Amino acid sequence: TTADRFQQMLRRSPASLLQRSLYKVQIERYLARFPAEQLTFVLFEEFIKDPVRIAGSVARFVGAEGPMPERKDDSPRNVARVRRSLPLQLLRNRMVGPRGARDRWDGLGEPMGEAAPRHGAVERAADWAFARINPVRAGRPPAMQADTRTFLTELLKRENRGLSELIGIDVERYWYKPRTER
Fold first, then answer.
1. pTM for the whole thing?
2. What's the first-to-final CA gap in the chain, in angstroms?
3. Which is more confident, 172 or 105?
4. How many DSSP H helices and E strands does the chain contain?
5. What is the pLDDT of residues 48-75, one digit of tens each?
6. What are the distances in angstroms from CA 82 to CA 50, 78, 131, 135, 166?
7. Cβ distance 61 to 69 under 8 Å?
8. 82 phi and psi angles, rounded to 5 deg
């Protein structure tokens, strides 16, 4: 099943699946380059609860004036999309690396628009081929096994310890709880 394949991928290549969830490490990298007062943090869970208030808060933080428009349509805007084959995506990442993360860090600290993409011909060819072989499709990721969820919850709780203090938001209010309590 797809859930079993996720378990296998997690065993084989945990870093490729988990690195984007290690928020504390990522934020520490930003704080090493930018003063804390130039950064603001928003939890997705808070944004979903009150998008107008959170968007207004971010707008004020960046110096934008005026009221935030009310959202008239509550239909989903960012419907989940998953690759047809997760193992094939991991193979692509092993061959040319996870480009998205590299692009973000390569241009960090440079004025917007000045960081030129650094994609070689092999990487572009691999992206083109993999996009055709392994297209994205609308849908939800497979359900996670309970023991995997417990393991990941404990791992991420440990790895992100201190995040609440770092960003000034109580992340445990939303995270690391059994799904029934969310």
1. 0.62
2. 26
3. 172
4. 10, 2
5. 888 888 989 999 999 997 776 776 666 6
6. 27, 12, 12, 8, 32
7. no
8. -130, 155
